[in-house]
Design goal:
2 copies of one chain form a homodimer.
Chain A: H1 3-13, E1 19-24, H2 33-45, E2 49-55, H3 57-65, H4 68-72, E3 74-78, H5 89-95, H6 100-109, E4 115-118, H7 122-133, E5 143-149, E6 155-159, H8 169-185, E7 193-197, H9 208-219, E8 224-229, H10 232-236, E9 241-243, H11 246-272, H12 275-295, E10 303-306, E11 311-314, H13 321-335, H14 339-364
Parallel strand pairs in A: 1-2, 1-4, 2-3, 4-11, 6-9, 7-8, 7-9
Antiparallel strand pairs in A: 5-6, 5-10, 10-11
């Protein structure tokens, strides 16, 4: 059963529920068109969704009129203010409080909507979400997570993808717990394995931070800790949850995207470069389409801000309508689970564990 | 003209020269078979090569007998000692001095061979190379570099790929200079552009180390500094030289390799999964072969230890004979250039520049 089928099944279980989502209609390169079209596609998939659009009503109202069902399921909340793509998070906190992004987040904070989706400035989005939604009790820093395709089949969850450049061992332990709960509750994995991203050279194996994080995770009974993994293990699917700092995670994710594009361009070049290539392309097209679809970044669009009191999903700034609709699907998927409560419970457990571990170290010392 | 043709041309220019290479015959998963077969393939390409094999003569002599020409071009230097794959660099320095790896490096240090190739333990190889070959004057830390295919065509040089986990701004500046000289002298790029690998989130853009490195590089006239780049820029070929610390570089390289494998496996699955797929595969095969060949890690095998007084090439531990022969080609390619002198010259320039920059900071302070 693929991810979409799983989501649809879960939604059908909660068929009576009405889900209201807040959309930052102005975030991302092709906003508001892509946001409106994405919402339209998502509504086809989940007919019980309702949308609150935050943004420029002069642009939004005519766009929505093109989709009758969507128009009926939507309300528009006007604002002129937009968070620019190059606005620093600190500036967004000062001047962005009435922006489409902030108002959409506020709708979740105030309980008007169950989740927010934005394709805008990631740093600003995270900063505003932290302030407006607050972090889950016990979590010091939220992380950005996403799921990725793997060679073994199924998906792997990876975090942090860019929220925290520098991380200490306790941040990494928190990421491991959040990722593990996410893989269990949202992806339905049993006892998901967790790997710490590292490099293979012996002497270098693990900066002190990574080694200390591994020591904690090895001994914490709530986590199925696999150990260190390397970059090639991400796509291999060696573990269900890949834990890393936000710098490394962001570089790895973008390297992965870039490589997929490179191969796609090599294939295109190969098939268009000669007559035999063109003939081959004709016959291979159905298969190539399926493979490209499977690798399509739109399919994996929708990064999750984990560790907040509310569901906030980041859509890629340059995604298409299909991609935006998938980001909405991720929100829907998270809504059908008691994700937050599970994290809180785990964070209490881990605190007890960490306090004991510290005590042991002191006793030994 | 592709890389191989360029190498052949250069070699033909130095047709009278006899090139002696030292091979660690015991390094890597499939040693010594792959080493012997790789040398055989390389000799077909460059008939004037001579090889010194270091390792177990009981295994080597019968293997070499299978290749008449290679046997005539080779000498075997027996040793029983081998550096294990999981031996720590410090241990290799203590007990590995008579190993096949150390003896092969020594052959270069003593001027008996012009370059060394090993598929063994990277950490040990780097540690032994530093001790035996010493670093180029002015370079504080050697780096591991490799070239990678790009979407724009041509190759990009990336370093460091794992020699230095934690780097300060001056290490990164050194890497930029070494990478730039390498791209100019070995790849033949004119005024190659240099990018610092970073992440895109505004607030996070650059740890202090990255920002300081960028400040130096912006102002240093000897480098064509492009600025910060992101993970997807590696495969895109946005710059000619990608500079990063050894941790990030290693993760990015392995993520790239893992993604290429993932797509290959998706394609295989796609083409074998249905009748239409199988028919498509039949017609697409010639093109797919070319594309896979272009992405074949063997083609890009041979990482370079930059910054040493001598040419040391690291072959991937699990490569095949073709891959090992390409690692030999990298050594041959570097031999036909005055690479070391160029780096020394640049390091003198940069020292003057850095001293002036420091003086300016002090004067301003």
């Amino acid at each position: 059963m693929n991810a979409d089928a799983k989501i649809v099944q879960k939604i059908q279980m909660n068929v009576s529920q009405e889900l209201i989502l807040a959309l930052d209609a102005m975030g991302g390169a092709n906003a508001p068109q892509v946001v409106v079209e994405g919402a339209h596609l998502a509504l086809e998939r989940y007919p019980r969704l309702k949308f609150l659009f935050f943004g420029d009503e002069k642009q939004l109202i005519p766009l929505l009129k093109e989709y009758k069902k969507l128009n009926a399921a939507s309300t528009v909340h006007h604002t002129d203010t937009v968070v620019d793509d190059d606005m620093k998070p600190a500036a967004a906190l000062r001047v962005g409080r009435t922006s489409s992004m902030a108002l959409a987040i506020k709708a979740v904070a105030e309980g008007v909507a169950s989740g927010v989706i934005s394709g805008g400035n990631t740093g600003a989005y995270m900063a505003l979400s932290k302030i407006l939604l607050k972090t889950v009790k016990g979590i010091s820093r939220p992380a950005i997570a996403s799921y990725l395709p793997t060679e073994r089949g199924g998906e792997t969850v990876m975090l942090d993808l860019g929220a925290n450049v520098a991380c200490d061992e306790l941040n990494l332990v928190e990421f491991a717990i959040m990722g593990s709960v996410f893989a269990t509750d949202v992806l339905g994995y049993e006892n998901p394995s967790v790997g710490l991203l590292n490099i293979g050279e012996e002497d270098l194996k693990g900066s002190p931070v990574l080694r200390r994080a591994a020591d904690y995770l090895k001994n914490y009974p709530g986590i199925n800790f696999y150990g260190f993994i390397e970059g090639n293990d991400i796509a291999k699917g060696t573990v269900d949850v890949v834990v890393t700092d936000g710098f490394t995670g962001n570089v790895a994710l973008k390297t992965l995207e870039g490589t997929a594009r490179l191969i796609r361009s090599f294939l295109k070049e190969g098939f268009s470069g000669s007559l035999i290539g063109k003939i081959g392309y004709f016959f291979a097209l159905p298969t190539l389409r399926l493979v490209f679809q499977r690798m399509n970044p739109s399919r994996y669009n929708g990064a999750i801000f984990l560790g907040l009191n509310g569901i906030a999903i980041k859509s890629h700034g340059s995604t298409d309508a299909l991609g935006f609709s998938n980001a909405i699907s991720v929100a829907v998927d998270m809504l059908s689970h008691g994700f937050k409560a599970q994290i809180e419970k785990n964070m209490e457990d881990v605190k007890v564990f960490l306090a004991q571990a510290e005590l042991e170290v002191k006793t030994q010392g």
